[in-house]
Model the fold of this input.
Amino acid sequence: MSLTVRGYAALSAQQPLGLFRFDRRSLRDTDVAIDILYCGVCHSDLHNARNDWGNAVYPMVPGHEIIGRVVEVGSAVTRFRQGDAVGVGCMVNSCGGCASCAKGQEQYCDNQATYTYNAIDPQDGRMTYGGYSERVVVSQDFVLRIAEGLDLAGAAPLLCAGITTWSPLRHWHVGAGSRVAVVGLGGLGHMAIKLAKALGAEVTLFTRSAGKEADARRLGADHIVLSADAAQMQASAGRFDLIIDTVPYVHDVNPYIPTLATDGTLVLVGYLGPLEPMLNTAPLVMQRKAVAGSLIGGIRETQEMLDFCAQQGISADIEVIRMQDINTAFERMLRSDVKYRFVIDMASLKGIQ
Amino acid sequence: MSLTVRGYAALSAQQPLGLFRFDRRSLRDTDVAIDILYCGVCHSDLHNARNDWGNAVYPMVPGHEIIGRVVEVGSAVTRFRQGDAVGVGCMVNSCGGCASCAKGQEQYCDNQATYTYNAIDPQDGRMTYGGYSERVVVSQDFVLRIAEGLDLAGAAPLLCAGITTWSPLRHWHVGAGSRVAVVGLGGLGHMAIKLAKALGAEVTLFTRSAGKEADARRLGADHIVLSADAAQMQASAGRFDLIIDTVPYVHDVNPYIPTLATDGTLVLVGYLGPLEPMLNTAPLVMQRKAVAGSLIGGIRETQEMLDFCAQQGISADIEVIRMQDINTAFERMLRSDVKYRFVIDMASLKGIQ
Done:
């Protein structure tokens, strides 16, 4: 009562990803089966595959920026039908009963959302496998609709990089007149610039490299501030309502705090770990500033973001690769050699036996 | 064109405070002259007198929790008249023209509010002198009305300890149904408990000492959690909407973060400096939590707090001392040997030549 599919898996932290056959469950009443067309390559795929966070279970099929078409629906599915273009992001389920789920914030589910891969599905006790594969089976409540006109390959990164930056932009009420700064120009950072700009904000990129200026402006940044240039940093004092910090490794956030306006927030979306060097509380107290975190986004706001992107013609800047190039892509990602997201064309799997 | 008054001043960081004569300016049109009845002793008075923050100017007359009666008003004063019971807090002026001042948040004035002591008054270029003195002259816009029925000595600490905890309670929308925790049971902490409870919140005190339980409950705490007890901390996981951290020295905030609910904020009101050990961002990201700071409060919200306290019968728990006991009081404060605020009875100055 299941279908054997092909995907790419990590078999250990040390091995490159390779072909892996595994079973997808038969459809439950509310399930949707999706033929995967594209899957974005998130930095966390690399972290997970190499067990950087210490919780890897092998074999692991990464991938949580999934775009595909519905091929089959369960008997109780009302919201999708065969042929629909759909997406699946970082979560495939949540408890549905807690306060966070009731608010449509399944990412903060009190009983922990079920992640799209490297998680135990509490419904059947089996590991979840992600989008580096031919097909996925997901409850309709965690399937997103992809509106006509959205580029399907470029839409894949919206499911993680997009929503991870959209959610704080909306939560902190960014709109016309807001001043937003973005730290780091990668997969998340380039989406943060596009989305903040489209929401009407004045957008600044903090970067260590003057070479990024032209690209940042093309993406929508109004200003570029070189974070190593003390005069430029000084000139930005008290400026930003929200800073979205996308840097995925340990770094010093202290230099950015003075550039927040009173009541401003620096929100970390890329880094989990101790803030080094130590965070100085003085500027937080003196101007009621905050350092916060934010995790992906809920299903409702993901749909909202996808519809907004379709309407505004926004998608990610991507480089399409074949599934068999994933290990090279991981290495290039480690060198930040990607503008700005790899997306796997899953048709490439068809040629692999 | 000025009046010589007596006060107590620090003449250097090393010397005890002693009698000091200085001039108060003649009244400008909008000024109010106040005979000081009581002045609270804030921990920052000690820090300032001993130049712990490196910006002390001597002689320094501390004191920013001032209660007195109006003895004279300038020709354009409309809001006060002779005999009114009034208060003066941490600020005696601000620019009045910036966005923060327009919002009634003079404490965040873009051009820096004029502090009640150890500051240069931009109007005349002279140092400000605080409430450890017979009389003060202040613009009516920075004078607070003390409603009938409020105990005058117990009201003094409301001007700093009270507003410093009230402002975050209001800014983060604490009310019926809120769960608030307080870290540290001193001048600020005991006011935080009283005010949060009166606003309708369920209030928890985090403390390192089981001996504080009875007092905390008397002040209004519903629960006491021993921060060194791992089981009690674990049982508080995900509980609080707001944690008011009043600890005035470097300390580890990491243990408190897991006790915040999703979207919860830990607000620092007592400590300016680097957070040691390092703040871990993981729980901030995973449940959209924040670490913020907050500084005293604006004039409008200080008046709101004073009126609320009069209506609810809330004042600080105090120990009244004579002016000449201030140096002993400083030493006792360093040992946390005060429940919960020293207040100087300024009548004691009359006996000193």
Remarks:
- The first helix of chain B runs from residue 43 to 49.
- Chain B touches chain A through 37 residues (CB under 8 Å).
- The domain at 3-160+297-307+314-351 of chain B is CATH 3.90.180.10 (Quinone Oxidoreductase; Chain A, domain 1).
- Chain B has ten helices and 17 strands.
